[in-house]
Amino acid sequence: MKRVFAVLGFCAAASVLSGCVRLPAGVEPVSPFTADRYLGQWYEIARLDHRFERGLTQVSAHYSYGDDGEIRVINRGCDGPSGEWQQAEGRAKFVGSDDKGFLKVSFFGPFYGSYAIFELDPEYRYAFVSGPNHDYLWLLAREPEPDASLRHQFVKQAGELGFPVDHLIWVKHGDSRCD
Questions:
Q1: Residues 91-123 pLDDT 10s
Q2: 13, 112, 140, 166: least buried by Cβ within 10 Å?
């Protein structure tokens, strides 16, 4: 439980220090975008390393509508050394138009960080997501083990946009101490 609070505090600090809600150079959010199709379970396939996710495996995100109409976000991952699931709950709001894949996400009070979907499968099977700068990058998919061609496409496209793809962490799914 202490780690979840540390994660939330770090996310809040990162949001404030990073200028809150902006886009990295070269990143353009997808449009059109339909939130209803994006809702549900996503698996984190790859990410750039950050303290708030360090050491986590089997990371997933679940998106749903909250009672207030905002998008509810539940991020969950297995902390192998402790054998415990770590979870953080947040909320997301659109930045501008709701038909563009640019949202701001908060896991702690009034502090928001960028969530920019810059590549999205037409069937909503995978998404490439960035934060406010080139230090934040994720590959999300509906299945925990997408094919190699998707991984290659992600690395190529993100690299061309200036993300340090040689530092990607490929998230392990399946066997864990948290089952």
A1: 999 999 999 999 999 988 788 999 999 999 999
A2: 166
Distance set, CA 163 to CA 13, 53, 57 (Å): 22, 18, 22
Q: How confident is the model at residue 5 (pLDDT cuts 50, 70, 90)?
A: very low
Domain that holds residue 126: 2-170
Give 10's pLDDT tier (boundaries 50, 70, 90): very low
Tell me the C-alpha distance between 97 and 32, whole Å. Answer: 10
Indicate the pTM of the whole model: 0.87
Residue-wise pLDDT for 58-92, tens only, equals 999 999 999 888 999 999 999 988 889 999 999 99
Q: In sequence order, what are the residues at sequence separation of 6 or more whose Cβ sits closer than 8 angstroms to the Cβ of residue 91?
A: 66, 70, 71, 72, 73, 105, 106
**Of 126, 127, 109, the residue nearest 118 (C-alpha):** 127
Residue 142 lies in a domain: yes
89 burial type by CB count under 10 A (0-12 exposed, 13-18 middle, 19+ buried): middle
How many structural domains is the chain composed of? 1
Handedness of CA 121, 125, 131, 134 (dihedral sign): negative
